């Protein structure tokens, strides 16, 4: 892969790259739409991801190009940058915008990106690009920012430059992921622990519905606002900063403060999903995969009925998985509104699962899904020869 990318870089810029970096995508095993509510999430990095090759130029410009997209751009080095439309290169430009206050860039750069994460699939292609760019620039120019600062910077890009009110989970998992491990991350304190993710006789299947969604054009920000409304109602009686500070029992005592049925449904999902992450971490640590699988199904049902971020495509996948005897758990992953689902599938049944799911999905939706078997991999890093 590296040799092929080097050749592409030479063809594009007529020089060899000075360095190559990689950042993975991620899946969230459980704990959805609670990262921006201060809750616990359980993501892991995957082996699919994004590569960045870079080299300096003497023209005082930054060139952004990608093997995946025809769109490319060249910008003059300046003190700040603005988002331009919805092009992919807004994500790395946003990182440059955040880093400019360090006054570090004195010459131009040529950059070439390549990714094998399906765009708009919910596997965090945007966070992968953001963290990759921040990590590469920090390493290449010796900016001395630690990895957590780069994660926070990348989140600011997503929130302020791109305009999506997401939490910090995606960027954190992309940066701190470890092979064969899940991260149990407190999105309020940013404290986390690593849990062995020994799937034993099962593999993690990722099912792309092939219904792409752009978060800034979806109801994601609407859900963010609904949770803020629920929090404000509860704060009339109790002193909390985030919904996920509440246990299900304490929430039940104060839920009467929320007089809007839709807002109540949103808050109920958030509180109960947070509890599910605690139970899932315990189950995974103890190797109780069937318990973990049941929690995955419960999570999806809550996201479908209470948070209403699923859809026909994701439901068709999970409904099939519930009838397939060699799957013990499945759920949508990511923000929803399309994108991907995940399933715990017994080894040896990958081909049968793919065929039968495809047949079922085409019958229900009208076009095929894509099925991937990915390993749980390491976080962002520089690639060495």
Automatic annotation (TrEMBL):
GO BP, one annotated term: galactose metabolic process
Domain Galactokinase N-terminal per the UniProt entry, residue ranges: 7-56
Primary location group: cytoplasm
Residues involved in ATP binding: 66, 120-126
Gene3D superfamilies reported for this sequence: 3.30.230.10, GHMP kinase, C-terminal domain
Residues that bind Mg(2+): 126, 158
Subcellular location as annotated: Cytoplasm
GHMP kinase N-terminal domain boundaries: 90-177
Keyword tags: ATP-binding, Carbohydrate metabolism, Cytoplasm, Galactose metabolism, Kinase, Magnesium, Metal-binding, Nucleotide-binding, Transferase
NCBIfam families: gal_kin, PRK05322.1
Stored PANTHER family: GALACTOKINASE-RELATED, MEVALONATE KINASE/GALACTOKINASE
Protein family: Belongs to the GHMP kinase family. GalK subfamily.
Functional summary from the UniProt entry: Catalyzes the transfer of the gamma-phosphate of ATP to D-galactose to form alpha-D-galactose-1-phosphate (Gal-1-P).
UniProt protein name: Galactokinase
Organism from which the protein derives: Pedobacter cryotolerans
């Amino acid at each position: 892969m590296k040799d092929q990318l080097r050749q592409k870089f030479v063809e594009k810029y007529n020089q060899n790259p000075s360095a190559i970096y990689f950042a993975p995508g991620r899946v969230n095993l459980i704990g959805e739409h609670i990262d921006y509510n201060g809750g616990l999430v359980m993501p892991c990095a995957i082996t699919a991801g994004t590569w960045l090759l870079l080299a300096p130029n003497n023209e005082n410009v930054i060139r952004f190009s990608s093997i995946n997209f025809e769109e490319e751009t060249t910008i003059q080095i300046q003190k700040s940058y603005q988002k331009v439309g919805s092009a992919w290169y807004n994500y790395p430009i946003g990182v440059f915008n955040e880093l400019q206050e360090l006054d570090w860039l004195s010459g131009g750069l040529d950059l070439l990106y390549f990714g094998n994460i399906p765009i708009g699939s919910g596997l965090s292609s945007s966070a992968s690009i953001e963290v990759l760019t921040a990590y590469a620039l920090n390493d290449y120019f010796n900016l001395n920012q630690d990895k957590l600062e780069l994660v926070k910077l990348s989140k600011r890009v997503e929130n302020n430059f791109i305009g999506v009110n997401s939490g910090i989970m995606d960027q954190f998992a992309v940066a701190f992921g470890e092979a064969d491990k899940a991260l149990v991350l407190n999105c309020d304190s940013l404290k986390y622990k690593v849990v062995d993710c020994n799937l034993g006789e099962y593999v993690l299947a990722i099912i792309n519905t092939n219904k792409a969604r752009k978060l800034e054009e979806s109801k994601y920000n609407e859900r963010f606002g609904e949770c803020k409304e629920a929090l404000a109602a509860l704060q009339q009686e109790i002193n909390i900063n985030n919904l996920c500070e509440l246990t299900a029992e304490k929430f039940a005592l104060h839920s009467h403060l929320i007089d809007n049925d839709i807002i109540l449904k949103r808050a109920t999902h958030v509180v109960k999903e947070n509890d599910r992450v605690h139970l899932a971490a315990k189950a995974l640590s103890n190797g109780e995969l069937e318990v973990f699988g049941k929690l995955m199904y419960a999570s999806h049902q809550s996201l479908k009925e209470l948070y209403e971020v699923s859809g026909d495509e994701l439901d068709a996948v999970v409904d099939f998985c519930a009838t397939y005897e060699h799957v013990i758990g499945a759920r949508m992953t990511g923000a929803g509104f399309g994108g991907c689902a995940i399933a715990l599938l017994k080894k040896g049944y990958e081909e049968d699962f793919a065929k039968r799911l495809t047949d079922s999905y085409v019958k229900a939706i009208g076009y095929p899904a894509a099925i991937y078997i990915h390993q749980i991999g390491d976080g962002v890093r520089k690639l060495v020869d």
